[in-house]
TrEMBL record:
Organism superkingdom: Bacteria
GO biological process, one term: cellular response to hypoxia
Range of residues in the leader sequence: none
Protein name: Oxidoreductase
Organism of this sequence: Acinetobacter silvestris
Cofactor(s), names only, from the UniProt record: L-ascorbate
Length: 200
């Protein structure tokens, strides 16, 4: 198996500083173009396997209407992204003593008109999600296509993050955020760095 390294575009010092000061960071130009193409192809080839994310444990929720596909080892290219996040987790553990032990992830597809209302990924620390990440897969995105991530940072300042291609948004899982309604199909990988405890 090919060794996994953190890409040179991932400025770890900046990531750590941003998380410490604001609770979130952005990584632009995250991966080489040939990897993006392979990942987009893997995602789109499996779109017919996506399920309605609004149904959770058999119960319908009204706060989201996107579609998801949980990532397993059969999805080879997506697994490389998870492995890279595991490497980053080691850096976060050393710096913040987070005790991150695993990464869980799914592909997400927001078709035109789909959204995810205000929520927290770890409300009142009721689960072991410590850090949330969103990696934008689409190869083209225009500013008027919606689908932005709207996020309140740890200082209670609001930010609107454009879903630029090849961008990763990484933030504390207890921060309030939403996905603005998309006007075009928006593809991404959502991943959570998980620990048995939350320390921030």
């Amino acid at each position: 198996m090919e060794a996994i390294f953190l890409p040179k575009s991932w400025n770890v010092d900046q990531i750590l500083e941003d998380l410490d000061q604001h609770g979130f960071t952005l990584i632009d130009d995250a991966y080489p173009h040939n990897y993006i193409q392979a990942l987009v192809a893997e995602c789109t080839a499996n779109l017919n396997h996506f399920r309605d994310a609004a149904i959770q444990s058999g119960v319908m929720t009204k706060i989201r209407n996107d579609h998801i596909l949980w990532i397993n080892e059969d999805l080879e290219h997506a697994q490389q992204h998870i492995d890279t996040l595991k490497l980053l987790s080691q850096q976060l553990n050393r710096h913040f003593y987070l005790g991150i032990k695993e990464v869980e992830a799914h592909f997400a597809c927001y078709n035109a008109g789909e959204f995810y209302a205000l929520h927290r990924d770890n409300p009142q620390q009721k689960n072991d999600r410590v850090i949330s990440t969103v990696y934008y897969l689409h190869e083209d995105w225009q500013a008027d296509w919606g689908g932005e991530l709207r996020l309140q940072d740890k200082n209670e300042q609001w930010h609107t993050i454009q879903p630029k291609p090849n961008r990763i948004a990484l933030f504390q899982s207890d921060l309030l955020h939403e996905v603005i309604q998309a006007k075009q199909q928006r593809l991404s990988i959502t991943a959570w760095l998980r620990s048995g405890q939350n320390i921030f």
